[in-house]
Amino acid sequence: MASTSDIKNGLCITHNHAPYQIIEFLHVKPGKGAAFVRTKMRNLNDGRVLEHTFPSGAKLDDIRIEYRTYQFLYNDADGYHFMNMESYEQLPMAKELINAPGFLKDGMECMVLFHADEDRPLSVEVPQTVVMEVTYTEPGMKGNTATNTLKPATVESGAEIRVPLFIEIGEKIVINTADGTYKERAK
Fold first, then answer.
1. Rounded to whole angstroms, how far apart are CA atoms 38 and 13?
2. CB-based burial of residue 34 (10 Å sphere; 0-12 exposed, 13-18 middle, 19+ buried)?
3. Which of 51, 54, 75, 174 has the fewest Cβ atoms within 10 Å of its own Cβ atom?
4. pLDDT by residue (tens digit) across 160-186?
């Protein structure tokens, strides 16, 4: 059993008979009345996001979880397929249960979140940053680095992001998967 003082990003709890993962939280102490914790949680069964407020000191039913490394293989009509690196067993996952499915590429290693007591997969976490090649973008302008202007670009996974004007087709860039933004050129 956990309480509201134990809430942190990534904590997994059971709420309304379903597993949830805390995405973000805020402790609020109003000038009048009791303190409370405002949370944003993702349902690990279907991927929906729920906002919920817990009164300060409320008891939460936390879930024991494990992270296991799996390799992304391919996606088809049945979902996204991942392979355990040690036992070579394959695991299909729905698109809604992956935090950034647009940035998956073949052979990428991801962390799969498992319910430790039931030994069942809950969600897939893509690495925080990925290196991808730009497959299409409008022609760039040399020397145009003074402004913070962005243009659309398509990367090798098919995802579209916004990049600075000087990025060209064929360049490798680092992308932040949490919000799908350009971070820097790959070294």
1. 15
2. exposed
3. 51
4. 999 988 888 999 999 999 888 999 988
d(CA 113, CA 103): 18
Q: Count Cβ atoms below 10 Å from residue 62 Cβ, excluding itself.
A: 15
User: What's the whole-model pTM score?
Assistant: 0.76
**Look-up of token digits 């799969």:** 112
For the purposes of burial, counting CB atoms within 10 Å of the CB of 61, is it exposed (0-12), middle (13-18) or buried (19 or more)? exposed
Give CA separation, 141 vs 145, 149, 160, 182, in Å: 9, 12, 20, 18
- Domain 2-62 in CATH 3.30.559.30? The answer is no
**Which CATH fold would you assign to the domain 65-125?**
OB fold (Dihydrolipoamide Acetyltransferase, E2P) (2.40.50)
> What is the C-alpha separation between 86 and 71, in angstroms, rounded?
10
Angstrom distance (rounded) from CA 121 to CA 161 = 29
Residue from 63, 64, 50, 67 nearest 19 by CA: 63
Length of the chain measured in residues: 187
Domain ranges of the chain: 2-62, 65-125, 130-185
Does the domain at 130-185 match CATH 2.40.50.140? Answer given as: yes
Partners of 150 in the β-ladder = 164
